[in-house]
Amino acid sequence: MQDSTTLPRPELVAFIAYLINDRRLAAHSVAAYRYAVLAYLDYLHTIHIEPTKATRDTVLAYLDHRKRQGLQSVSIFQATIALRHLYRFQLQRGEIAADPTAGIRLPKLVNKLPQPLTLGEMDRLLAAPCSPRYRDVRNKAIMELLYATGLRISEVIGLQISQVDLEAGYLRVMGKGGRERIVPFGARAREALERYRTLRTAKFPAAKETLFLTIHGDPITRGGVWSQLKYYAKRAGIPRPVSPHVLRHSFATHLLSGGADLRSIQEMLGHKRITTTQIYTHVEPEHLRRVWNKAHPRQ
User: For the chain, which has fewer Cβ within 10 Å, the N-terminal or C-terminal residue?
Assistant: First the structure.
């Protein structure tokens, strides 16, 4: 039997265009919602219900079905958001009279934010790629940039050469929702990027605009960065998992501990709401005490 997710889905074409052009979602969000909606359409096909004929009970039954299949709360959360987008799109087009996802609450998510690295762990990690080989030079530049800017992994692998101003120490990045922001970086990241750019130009003189390339000259992937970080973390003697997201958390936490204000960190991370920035930061009580002692008028 042919896998139904490989079959053409003409009804999805306009919906995907809506997510990209109207909702202005990032590519990885569009891919995730497409996958979630395909799974839902497959389910509806097995119970012989058209998407436009689904009711609130249909949607609830589907989400319960997925939960019983062992889907984690974060995946149920994502599936619910995907279906909200789907039915609001159909409502907008006049294909349905009422949104069957209306009133369906999102599942509570367990806060499983990764712990940021300590300053010592970060120093060891960034020192791990130390050879002059192309792979090490490229990975050093990626890691320095991740820690210097707090970029999402999707933003890093999508960076174009023209977006990085090495002389000024700034980069221009298009984040979630198509929001552009300017993010500064320091001398360590600039030095690593300059070294990588020189090696990249020599190795791939005819390469296109994508900044970070594999040893074969192709754009590096999300999985490629993850596997390299895992390798260097082990090499640096860091026993817990290290991912691009951990470096993003570490960036925010270390900035806040160093005295940066939350609003500036929000801008650099590209968060729409400051409440999102707050959960990304971990501050030691000792730091809070130092801030209080320095700033409060009644000591």
Answer: N
Catalytic residue among 66, 84, 248, 254: 248
List of residues 6+ apart from 199 with CB closer than 8 A: 134, 137, 138
* Helices marked H in 150-203: 153-157, 187-203
Is 234 an active-site residue? no
- Sign of the CA dihedral with 257 first, then 242, 223, and 24 last: negative
Contact 144, 192 (CB under 8 A): yes
Of these residues, 152, 190, 200, 249, which one is catalytic?
A: 152
In the beta sheet, which residues pair with residue 288? none
pLDDT digits (tens, 9 = 90+) for 106-160: 877 665 667 889 999 999 999 999 999 999 999 999 999 999 999 999 999 999 9
Q: Enter the DSSP assignment of 95.
A: S
Q: Which of 235, 245, 282, 287 is catalytic?
A: 245
Annotated catalytic residue 249: no
Q: Which of 277, 261, 240 is nearest to 115 (CA)?
A: 240
Judge if pTM exceeds 0.70: no
Whether 195 is a known active-site residue: answer no
Q: Is 87 exposed, middle or buried (0-12, 13-18, 19+ CB in 10 A)?
A: buried
Secondary structure of residue 237 in the 3-state scheme:
coil
Catalytic entry in 176, 195, 222, 235: 176
Residue 299 to residue 293: CA distance in whole angstroms: 7
